[in-house]
Amino acid sequence: MAVRLGPYYGAASDTELARRQNAVKEIIAKKELDGIIAGGHNNALGGAVRYFTDYGNAGSHIQAIVIPKEGGIGFFGHCAFDGVPIPPPVQRGGEYAKGGPYLTSTSFSDDYIPSEMVKFIQSKGLKRLGFYRQNSLPYHFVQYILNNVPGASVEKIDDEIDYLMAVKSEEELTVCRETVKLHDRLYQIIPTILRAGRRERDISTDLKKAAFDIGMEEVNNVMVGAGNPKAQPKPCLLPNNVIQEGDIVDILTELSGPGGYWGELSRPWSLSDTPDKEFLQAVDDAVYMQGELAKIAKDGVPAVEITKALHKFQDEHGYKRSAGLFGHGQGLDMSMRPTFSYDDDMILKENMFVSIHPQMANGRVFAFNTDNFIITKDGAVRLNETPQGVMYL
After folding, report:
1. N or C: which end of the chain has fewer CB within 10 A?
2. What is the rounded distance in angstroms from the CA atom of residue 266 to the CA atom of residue 380?
3. Distance from first CA to last CA of the chain, Å, rounded?
4. Contact between 71 and 124 (Cβ < 8 Å)
5. Phi, psi of 319, rounded to the nearest 5 degrees
6. CA quadruple 93, 98, 101, 106: dihedral, nearest 10
7. Residue 155 is inside which H or E element, if any?
8. Smallest Cα–Cα separation from 332: which of 253, 212, 217, 210?
């Protein structure tokens, strides 16, 4: 088990972190760049910074890194003018760490962080910069660099780093498996808190607290939705219905375990011994198709083939086509490539860690099961031990 508590709470060993930093240096050299810039402002979709630093985001403040072709990483982010965005004991592979009390809500502070980035970029003589995840940093940050570093240019560089982050090392897979186990463990709590008369939000609140109690690092969503026979999870402040006898209650958890690796799990829970037959068929179809998609998800298969297979089944069985993501990569981002969509041209590789959650929905029913998988040369292997299908109280 790679997770440790000291000298700080993180998931990456020195060897693992060096592997990532060396790998990105190879990408920089291959693309003939002087360096790469990337950023993030949360822990659910801000994994680009954490992947190379093993340091999570505190709240929703902007973090940024500059990885030069030679030398250590520059760390930048919200902090006091005389402070550092990443504390010294955690600056593994770092050479420079500066920032300021920048807030997206105070325009006078716009230059605090990019001005420090420019100092580092100029000191290293960086001109041609790769920009990983263009939406990860504010527009002003990039414009400030271009306006204040003569001859500087930035270009999108996503595919190479996406593959690097998507294919997990053995150490990463160990941590991913631990995250999955914690999701299964959290699900064992549900029979003690789910009952008629409680609100949907009561269930989500109890599960969020329980998640932290068992060692989860962060909660993105605990979605709960009740109905009969149609029940769909509801995000954020919407789940305020009172659960009734005989309801179906759909519960989706999206949580990160120790070290910040994300997973998810969902099942429908029945408060009736005899749920609606059409609903039961939809659940059976969702579980069946999840298994079929897992068989297709082999090393070397284009991710889009998963989408084609699901839509074909849904068309043939009278279900609405899934229009959003019904599966995706996971890691230090809750959702990352590969995504199962028509627009993602990624090729599936062995040791990718993914969720697969096809839904079966029509005007009367909604059903899906969410599980976590590791892709192998023979297909995706399910990691969760929570029973599939309808859960009964």
Report:
1. N
2. 18
3. 34
4. yes
5. -100, 155
6. -100
7. strand 153-156
8. 217
Q: Are strands 391-392 and 262-270 parallel, antiparallel or unpaired?
A: parallel
Q: If you average pLDDT over residues 243-263, what whole number do you get? A: 95
- Strand 128-131 and strand 153-156: the pairing is parallel
Give the integer Cα–Cα distance in Å for 206 and 219: 12
**CB 78, CB 131: distance < 8 Å:** no
Residues in CB range of 291: below 8 A, 6 or more apart: none
Cα dihedral 378, 383, 385, 389 sign:
negative
- Residues 47-57 have pLDDT tens digits of 999 999 998 88
Query: For the whole model, what pTM was predicted?
Result: 0.95
What does the pLDDT look like over 155-211, one tens digit per residue? 999 999 999 999 999 999 999 999 999 999 999 999 999 999 999 999 999 999 999
Residue indicated by tokens 């930048």:
76
- In this predicted model, what pLDDT tens digit does every residue of 128-161 receive, in sequence order? 999 999 999 999 999 999 999 999 999 999 999 9
| Reduced 3-state DSSP string for 330-392 | CCCCCCEEEECCCCCCCECCCCEEEEECCEEECCCCEEECEEEEEEECCEEEECCCCCCCCEE
Nearest to 223 by CA among 244, 199, 251: 251
Task: State the residue for tokens 């932290």.
Answer: 212
Tally Cβ neighbours within 10 Å of residue 5.
8
What token pair was written down for 214?
């068992």
Give the pair of three-digit tokens for residue 131: 């920009």
Tokens standing for 357? 């959650």
Q: Where do we find the tokens 């309801």? A: 247
